[in-house]
Amino acid sequence: MGNVEEKSGDYKIALFIAVLAGFLTPFDLSAVNIALPTIGREFAMDAVSMSWIPTAYLLTSAIFLVPIGRVADIYGRKKVCTVGLSLFTLASISMILSPIVPFIILSRVWQGVGGAFIFGTAIAILTSLAPRGERGKALGIYTTAVYLGLSFGPSIGGFMTDHLGWRSIFLINIPIGVVAVSLLIFRLRGEWADAQGERFDLHGSLLYGLMLLALIYGLSMLPSTEATGIILAGAALFILFLWYEWHTRSPLIDLYLFRYNRRFAFSNLAALLNYSATFAVTFFLSLYLQYIGRLSPSEAGLILIVQPVIQALFASSAGYLSDRVDPGKVASAGMALNAIALLSLALLDEGSSIAHLGIILFVMGAGLAFFSSPNTNAIMSSVEPKCYGVASGTLGTMRLMGQMLSMAIAMMLIAIFMGRVEIIPEQYSGLLGAMKAGFLVFACLCIVGIFASLSRGEAVEEERGICRVDR
User: Fold this and answer.
1) Per-residue pLDDT tens for 200-233?
2) How many CB atoms are located within 10 Å of the residue 228 CB?
3) 467/255 Cα distance (integer angstroms)
4) 259 and 359: one domain?
5) Contact 55, 422 (CB under 8 A)
6) Is the pTM of this model over 0.85?
7) What single DSSP character describes residue 468?
8) What is the domain extent for residue 28?
9) Do 102 and 231 fall into the same domain?
10) CA distance 69 to 347
11) How many domains does the chain have?
């Protein structure tokens, strides 16, 4: 009886830590997005340079996420999560003190490293402790925390930027980080290292990081001539990475999971396409509302809050539903709502009403809620416990790669329609053209994602046994 109570207590503490971690990183990301025009004006940055403030964070997180998930499986998820939260908190202090643009970018890089440690472990720890019949519910609560962070980011970030300056938004990260680290060290008992004793794939990690760096940097440089060579180098590294991972005995990413576990493979592909189609929406709309709409950061934040608030309201229900209905079907319905919202956003112009935009954001919020937690449930339920860290890290990587691809598409379109110039009234038509083209591209990605989501099929229990140590 005492053991059951201890496990229940550990689960509740792990859930609270996951909620804090789940709130922290999206709050920071969405708050920074709303502050980008203010930062850009202070340092006279063009739109492409501004986009590197969120992209530096996303790129670094993506490079480290899967390797850190593997490290956590081998050496302990609790240790890795503690280090990540500590790094993220210290990097937030560094952002407050940043005097010049290179220092801001460097601080965002360090935040990205800390974010990778958090992403690669928080969901894995929660999945390890959640009773199997309540996993979808727990992931729904975690997803609600993520969306609450996204909700409060634009509103609180906009208010603080208006009244206290953009640096003040990073103050909120510090107490949350301190509380989460304290709970991990002093309250959460035990450690989780289901792949203890296995070898870490250092060479695969280096290839993986160089591949992502080349691909994303090359995409951000489009349509310049140098971009093609960098992208081709990234593609060559990708092929080399796949060959190496297939032949090594202890791979960073077990390609067997993608080849033989259909549910795992298509759920991750659906996540990649979903985040590729939706992440840069906030970036575009933040610029649209503050430049073309001439709203203040706090006013723009109050409008953009609609989407994540709806996500937060529906996320727990979606997670609960995915415990009782095939999560793949629930996620596919959410993706369809996203496609409808993106097609509607492509029709925005200078005279569009705030009410019209609010309705579209409502639909997208519901779509993201009914996609995210059921899709996460489908992925984590498709593997066995020794793969939780890698599965969590792989899902996080799909999310971050999708977010980076989304930003790369946005940067490319802005460069094509506007060039690398400051956003002034004469450039507003170019900004609007880039935004409308982006929403059409994102809608197409989302439609492809619906088919990927529907292709995952029903859960097959035998697939869960496929993992690296079974080779």
Assistant:
1) 888 888 998 898 888 877 876 766 778 889 989 9
2) 13
3) 9
4) yes
5) no
6) no
7) G
8) 2-201+248-470
9) no
10) 41
11) 2
